[in-house]
Write a structure and sequence with these properties.
92 residues, six-stranded mixed β-sheet, Trna Endonuclease, Chain: A, domain 1
Amino acid sequence: MLAQLNGSETFHLRTVDGRHEVDVIVQRPDLRVLAVAVKLSTAVRPADVADLNWLGAQIPGRVVDKLLINTGQRAYRRPDGVAVAPLALLGR
């Protein structure tokens, strides 16, 4: 994976009680992270980004960005700072 080639590591997070899950966490050598969620829907609901925002609250100052990948038609940034990008756009 490209992350490892740049000295970063990738992880998946699920809390023991199953209340929170982040699909992909890319951690840079400086311990800052990119948090990614993947949803197979076109619409983004508040629940879809809740765990990304939860992670940001757990490790303040370490999350450089939060990304939700979905099946929508356009990329944008939500008011809470989460970037939304359709999977189809990432391959271009």
